[in-house]
Amino acid sequence: MILDRMTTDRSLKLGIILASTRKGRFGETVANWFEEVAREDYRFETELIDLLDYSLPWNMSKDMDSDLSLFSEKIGSSDVFVVITPEYNHGYPAYLKLAIDSLQEEWKAKPLGFVSYGGSSGGLRAVEQLRNVFAELRMTTVKDCVSFHWAHARFHNGRPTEEFRYHASAERLLNELYWWGNVLKEARKEFPQSVLRS
Ligand SMILES: Cc1cc2nc3c(=O)[nH]c(=O)nc-3n(C[C@H](O)[C@H](O)[C@H](O)COP(=O)(O)O)c2cc1C
After folding, report:
1. What is the pLDDT of residues 146-162, one digit of tens each?
2. Average pLDDT, stretch 5-23?
3. Which of 13, 20, 99, 114 has fewest C-beta within 10 Å?
4. Distance between CA atoms of 80 and 155, rounded to whole angstroms?
């Protein structure tokens, strides 16, 4: 029963993807805060997947001697994801698109949520575009989202100034991810995925 499994500690592996690779990025501050919140949640085993640590082939070759094989292993072994994304010119970072497109099966039939940040829109335009992209990989993006408008002004000493409010948003996101994470993990085991072939 799924409910029995829901009482198991750290039953889901949560990959937190830090999408900004920009020099001087603010993303690290946001990711570190979110990782700390997620780590406190006994239901998840968390891992920060910083795209800056992976040199992925821009020519999209499947060169497994590159960092692609390590990246594939990290994504493939995660059950659920949170993407920490900024907004650049009403879109999401180019390197994130390369990272997404570099893999396929590793993403499939898994849930994914967002922590976004930016200026007036809080990165939400980037999030809405990413929902379309991840749908093509047969992923489920969850509704709840943590979003920081004018993000730089909303943090002090590495923490959100209105921490209670953002912590509550993060909890809602983690709850939804936990639900979908268990449902889809079970479904991946019990149902043939032939219908999900590209
Ligand atoms: C090239 C560039 C384009 C940007 N475009 C937008 C934008 O369209 N909308 C927005 O709200 N913020 C925009 N910003 C502000 C960023 O969201 C903000 O600087 C954020 O901190 C960037 O994330 P990073 O510091 O982790 O790279 C832009 C920033 C850069 C560098």
Report:
1. 999 999 999 999 999 99
2. 83
3. 13
4. 26
